[in-house]
Amino acid sequence: MRFCTRCVYPSRAATPLTFDEKGVCSGCRVSDQKKSINWNERFEMLRKMTDEYRSKDNYDMLIPVSGGKDSYYQAHVATRQLGLKILLVTYHGNNYLPEGEYNLNRMREEFDADHIIIKPSVDMLVKMNRIGFKLQGDMNWHNHCGIFTSPIQVAVRYKVPLMMWGEQGFMDVAGMYSYSDFIEFTAKTRVEHGLRGYDWDDFTDEGLEKLGRADLKEGLGAKDLMWAQYPSDEEIASVGVRGLYLSNFVDWDANNHVKIVKEHHSWLPAQTPFERTYRDFSNLDDMHENGIHDYLKFVKFGYGRGSDHSCKDIRAGIMTRAQGIEMVRKYDHVKPRRDLERWLKYVDMTEQEFDAVCDTFRDPSVWRIEDGQWVKDDIWGGSSAYGPVHLQPAAQVRYIKK
To answer: Does residue 235 sit in the same domain as residue 369?
Structure first.
């Protein structure tokens, strides 16, 4: 295991990194590109591009929103700076924080915009939580699917060709692309990056049978997952749907976005501190995103939101690497109690069952067993034990995605 010499990311990350001869990760190197970009020119490129999509009798742009600080910032740029008539689309996964719900419900009036909110059946969502957790160690998979599907369905139905996302996550975090690429959203991006190789039909009884996981069947079929079914290539081509990333055209920094949306739109951050990160303004649309969903990332790869947010702030120049390491030490390993207790009740599961499933997703290049404890190497040197092994050795298997 190695760690970036500038930020705090490990080499075995959820978003794959490469390292140069100085030990600096690809995410940091691509972030450096932002310093040499003329952002005024970039914004004029965006203005000219969006001007081409202005409509006399339809929406000028569709924006997928969660109600978070980035959603508000995207809508702020589109309406206040570009003067566009926008359509807001939200996938609602049923686990919003109160502050997140408050922010979401204000967007319609705040930006004088029509707002379509898609709320799937709660019973189905509970089942999706259970399947996602056991199949791939991600109870929030349905959120990724909904976020990257529902807006495209609406774009096709209402014939709105231009969409605007916020940041390109794999470029922002890991440097998968360059700022010269002007990467756009595609169906390939949706499945390979957002959905990690799975799709909606894998969660049906028939799909689970094909994956050899009939033990996870919850009685779901195609009719239960219509919100998750991506439009065909022909449907998308008929409208000419394309998805831009705003981060290609503005100097993307969440800390600045928060200042802007608080000042101009009275946006509300989390009022109760999170257990696994120091930030109070991220992922208010799902109370488990910063909680057990992120704890699963620690179980898999040995790091979490403390690392993620520290890396962003180190690259933004508002935190030193030494301070970031302290955030990693303080937050990454925490098992969030109130969050876990809520989710276990939500899906009718015991903590013992939860822990046993978690252990099946441990990455053997990160974790090893010593004296009945899970042990990994730490960024501050040496290694530490992070809890007991919950499975018998013969049962320690990792489910491999298709």
So the answer is: no
Question: Do residues 86 and 63 touch, judged by C-beta distance below 8 A?
Answer: yes
Within a domain: 317: yes
| pLDDT tens digits along 342-361 | 999 999 999 999 999 999 99
* Angle between the N-to-C axes of helices 69-76 and 98-110, in degrees from 0 to 180, rounded to the nearest 10: 10
Give the whole-angstrom CA distance, residue 293 versus residue 290: 7
| CA-closest candidate to residue 306, choices 273, 278, 345 | 278
Query: Regarding beta strands 114-118 and 242-245, do their DSSP bridges make them parallel or antiparallel, or are they unpaired?
Result: unpaired
Based on the structure, what is the number of domains in the chain?
Answer: 2
Query: Are 211 and 289 found together in one domain?
Result: no
Residues 81 and 160 placed together within one structural domain of the fold? yes
Asked, for residue 308, whether it belongs to a domain, the answer is yes
Instruction: Give the whole-angstrom CA distance, residue 340 versus residue 304.
Output: 16
Judge if 150 and 180 occupy the same domain. yes
The range of the structural domain enclosing residue 351 comes to 26-34+270-395
Overall size of the chain counted in residues: 402
Distance CA 158, CA 1 (A): 49
pLDDT one-digit tens code per residue, 282-338: 999 999 999 999 999 999 999 999 999 999 999 999 999 999 999 999 999 999 999
DSSP per-residue string spanning 72-137: HHHHHIIIIIS---EEEEEE--S---HHHHHHHHHHHHHTT-EEEEE---HHHHHHHHHHHHHHHS
| pTM of model > 0.85 | yes
Question: Which position has the token pair 């903590």?
Answer: 351
